[in-house]
Amino acid sequence: MAIDNLIDSVSLYVPRHVAFHGAIFPFVLLYILWSLTCYFTDYLLDLFFVGIFAIGVAQILCSLSCYWSVSFRCLLSCRRVTSPKEAVLVKILPTPNNGFTELVMLNTFQDQDLKTVTWFKYQEIKYIWNDDKKCFHSLEFPIANTIEQYGNCKGYNSDEQLSRAIQLYGRNRLNIQLPKFNDLFIERATAPFFVFQVFCIALWCFDKYWYYSLFTLAMLVLFECTLVKQQLRNMEEIRNMGNKPIHLYVYRNKKWQSLLSDELTPGDIVSITRTNNDQTVPCDLLLLRGSCIVDESLLTGESIPQMKESIENIADYSRNLDFESDKKLHILFSGTKVVQHTSPMKVLSSVRAPPDNGCIAYVLRTGFNTSQGNLLQTILFGVKHVTANNMETLAFILFLLIFAIAAAYYLWIKGTEDPKRSRYKLFLECTLILTSVIPPELPVELSLAVNSSILSLSKLGIYCTEPFRIPFAGKVEICCFDKTGTLTKDALIVEGIAGVEKDMIPMNEAPEHTIQVLASCHSLVQLEDTLVGDPVEKASLNAINWILTKNDFIVPKKSKIPPLKILNRFYFSSSLKRMSVLAAYKCTKTANKIIHIASVKGAPEVLKSMLLNIPNNYDSTYLELAGRGARVLALARKEMTAIPNDLKNLKREDLECDLNFVGFVVVSCPLKQDSENVIKELLNSSHMVTMITGDNALTACYVANELNFTRSSSRIILTLSETNKTWYWVSDSYKIQVPLNGNIKELVDSYDLCLTGDGLTFLNQNHKDILKKIIPHVCVFARVAPKEKEFIIITLKELGYCTLMCGDGTNDVGALKHAHVGIAILARGKEKLKLRKDMFANKSRKPGENVSDQMKRLMKEIDEESVTVVKSGDASIAAPFTSKFSSVTCVCHVIKQGRCTLVTTLQMFKILALNALIAAYSQSVLYVKGIKFSDSQATLQGLLLAASFLFISRSRPLKVLSKQRPLPNIFNVYTISTVLLQFIIHFCSLVFLVQEAGVYAENDSVNTTLLLSNDSSLSNSTNLDSADSDIDEFKPNVVNSAVFIISMALQICTFSVNYRGRPFMENLIENKPLLYSTVGTIMVILFLSMGTLQGLNEQFEIVQFPHEFRVILITVLTLDYVGAYVVDRLCLWLFGEGKFKKVPV
């Protein structure tokens, strides 16, 4: 059972004594036993050393495994216990995609009751042992006390209380300790692949490949040093994202003290004022007195400043704080900016007014437990996720290992037939063949593909905090969109008032009571002469030509209607779908008597039950308006006769009953300019699209129809009958009616389905089988709450679909987090796009700038671009992907990069597999004949191979998404069949050409003569006794030269044939670096085969081929290329297209 969202399980351990360590004690026994066995038997001395060497290697691997695997380390060096009193260490297994398994120290301290508290810290989060529940739990912060407890809190009155709180919670610090360069390098140098790479290099050294080995080692060390340097810079960036300490007033020991914010601890009382420059709220705070306007865009992506009110307006002081429901109105989050504050009108009885006249707040959470800390934690521990699918990679390597074992077995059998051949050399050669199956460059190449996509997305203003999700974008099957603010514009048009008269009336002719509701029922605030708040409310207030002034007074510009004063607000809630306000005005007709009114607005179906008298045309009016795409809000009011003296005692229910209907306000939401094109592109690229919105079903269906989500002629909505007894599917006009329990297959084939939140709840509770069958086929989900959006995404995932969710990052947070690919779009896109264009435009050389200065500037830009970490302001807690632009084109960009990355990864596996198989066989052929590549040949081959892989990883996606879907994983019919068939063709070519080369080597008396015949030492080396089979020195001949050229040609063949290109990314002709490297390598192969450049052949020690063999070589290689190309394209045509998942209905 998972402890929380971060930790899946924990295990307790005690370390064993060093002498009984699993990597020491058993091996000491083995050394002794092997030594005694060899001493008392007639085993040869070299066999004794071989045994000691084997035991030593096993011990080294066993010791390294303790670094590679925490579970293995626990098994060898620790003893598991059940009691935390005995334990010293804790093994932590995280939930998927939340970091790695770690072994951390268990700590203790004494609480105020002198009880020992056991705790540990994982990813900067503190966990404490609960002795009653017998489990660990995350630190419980004071976020669920009663409102009365918060209101009466006086902070810490003694140093003893404060020290206990600090001991429990720690201080408000986002400390990220930067490790040293050496420590990070050692960590990377002990990684399995690096150790394997060094092991391969050691084997090559034993085989006399000095240049190749040193070149490879230098490249590996240089690459690892570059990664370590980049990692340090990324961590520095993340550390800078944390809040810098600021001075603020804290109420301690019954007086206000000026302290740094990093000294705060939960339970403190602080004074918050408008922040200056880049200063942000230092921790999560509950507003006790006063009010604030907060910019949360850096944290949530919400571009509209949010109004925050104190808890003194909460009527029920006995209730507990509900963090989830109260956070939008009463909680200030760490990392946000206070752009305006209003000091409290009167002082709390328990706390004096602060010296800076700020708002009084209570510290709820600090450090990494805050919302900003959660974001930093995601980024900090998310950068380690740039990995391939480890299980698939392992399975693929094991698949290739079968062929390598066959090649090594062939070599061993053939080699042991010669009694004079060194078994040491034979063993070394077999080991080299086995290791060739795991390309040392595999992890590097796979990381490059993902990092390249991250960089490309960042240039498009899209930032990723969880890189491991990028390949998922290539597998996306269902794209889900929020409607308001995502597909439609924020700039709204108020069309008029409906339901009051027969026809819709313009806003300037609206009745007085309607105007009063529109003027008072909103949550707008005035910020430095700027009106901020919900776009619908801003548009409505501007349409009636009223002005909001300070202290919540609303004044008409020209009308004779009396001004209004807002006394109390009950804010809009997604779950309640309504808002209500208590307002007052002076009635001039009754000697300036103050009249109190309740103004309410919300969803028409919700307000219907609150009305005193319902007009006959109520339903038909709003349904007709919603059916043509308008956003419709019902307006109602009543005069309040009895008002409590203390407005805190006023309940929402007192306002929201016995209301008089005063009309529908009709607002049109124009589509964003590129919404239609994006949806069209997604539909044409084999994606399903779904709208998930909180808006009215008919409005949502209208927008869906405009964007081609649905067809109006066949659209049906799950509706409850008027008798409230049965549910059935019905069209907008009620012309089509389909029973709920009808034929599901016929239903989804014949109609476009719309499901409301109520319908979703009904099906989930009563007909889960029907829901699971139809939910992938629903085109529109309307009137759904945030939790229901989350449920829809989770259900689609459980059905096996790869999902994408795009929303504005506020009400959609849960759905964005649960989707495989969640994209939060921000609303400040246009001006940032302009800046982005200017930035790229200015990369040309500036006037008066010399070449040296230009190079320095470009190098600096390249250096800055290499930092792939997401910076402050670029990410949000809303989603793994954040777009800085408000356009939904970011969805297409992410999918394009995802498909490109996915296809690049799959083609890399194909190429690596074929190269490994070719290398295994070519090496076995050479070693059987006592021949090997020269040092320079191996170096050239490795260099060209690395360059080709680098250029493949830099492939760019096409501008338009393809209708064809990529294959989602390595193991599929296409990949297996094309690899095996291509290998058969290459294998036959190799066998034939090696046999032909052997014939010419036997018949041609000059087959061992180098073009560099004047080199006496090299000439003498060719006359050595043929019995010397240890091949300590390289001896060029026709077979060696032929196999080298064949291997080079076949490897370049695998690159060019298996490069996927269109329809997912640039083809070979468009990928200029890869094209140039491919053509260059082909030219080198031709020159070496033809012998036209004598110096080149001398450099790489290639013998002169007979004319007849040269013709055969070039002809066979050409036919091999054609055969491989035809086989691959045939397999691609038959099996190469990804299939869309279908749920049986």
Task: Based on the model shown, name its key terms.
alpha+beta; Calcium-transporting ATPase, cytoplasmic transduction domain A; 6 domains; 11-stranded mixed β-sheet; 8-stranded antiparallel β-sheet
Q: What report would you give on this structure?
A:
This protein starts with 6 loop residues before the first strand and ends in a 10-residue tail after the last helix. The strands form seven sheets. The protein has an eleven-stranded mixed sheet, with helices on both faces. An eight-stranded antiparallel sheet has the order 20-29-28-27-26-25-24-23. The chain folds into six domains: 7-139, no CATH class; 181-241; 247-382, Calcium-transporting ATPase, cytoplasmic transduction domain A (Distorted Sandwich); 493-668, 3-Layer(aba) Sandwich (Calcium-transporting ATPase, cytoplasmic domain N); 675-819, HAD superfamily/HAD-like (Rossmann fold, 3-Layer(aba) Sandwich); 899-1025 and 1032-1135. The chain is an alpha+beta fold.
Helices and strands, with pairings:
Layout: E1 7-15, H1 25-39, H2 45-68, H3 70-77, E2 78-81, E3 89-94, E4 102-105, E5 107-110, E6 116-122, E7 125-130, E8 135-138, H4 147-152, H5 159-169, H6 181-189, H7 192-206, H8 210-241, E9 247-252, E10 255-260, E11 269-272, E12 284-289, E13 291-295, H9 297-300, E14 306-309, H10 323-330, E15 331-332, E16 337-342, E17 359-365, H11 371-382, H12 390-416, H13 423-435, H14 442-459, E18 462-464, H15 470-473, E19 478-481, E20 493-498, H16 512-520, E21 525-527, E22 530-532, H17 535-543, E23 546-548, E24 553-556, E25 564-573, E26 578-587, E27 593-602, H18 604-607, H19 618-627, E28 630-640, H20 652-655, E29 660-668, H21 675-684, E30 688-692, H22 697-706, E31 715-720, E32 727-731, E33 737-739, H23 744-750, E34 752-756, H24 757-766, H25 768-774, E35 778-782, H26 786-798, E36 803-807, H27 813-818, E37 821-825, H28 829-841, H29 851-865, E38 881-883, H30 889-928, H31 935-953, H32 973-1003, H33 1016-1021, H34 1038-1058, H35 1072-1090, H36 1094-1099, H37 1107-1135
Parallel strand pairs: 19-30, 19-36, 30-35, 31-34, 34-35, 36-37, 37-38
Antiparallel strand pairs: 1-2, 1-3, 3-4, 5-6, 6-7, 7-8, 9-10, 9-11, 11-17, 12-15, 12-17, 13-14, 13-16, 18-38, 20-29, 21-22, 23-24, 24-25, 25-26, 26-27, 27-28, 28-29, 31-32, 32-33
Helix pairs in contact: 1-2, 2-3, 6-8, 7-8, 7-13, 8-31, 12-13, 12-30, 13-30, 14-30, 14-31, 19-22, 24-25, 30-32, 30-34, 31-34, 31-35, 32-34, 32-37, 34-35, 34-37
